[in-house]
Amino acid sequence: MTTPRKLTKAELDAMGKEDLVAYVEAGGDLADVLAVAKPPMDRGPKPASLPDYRDLTMQLTSIRLPVRMVEELDRVAGRDKEGRSGVIRAAVDHYLGHLRESA
Question: How far apart are CA 33 and CA 6, in angstroms?
Answer without folding.
Answer: 10
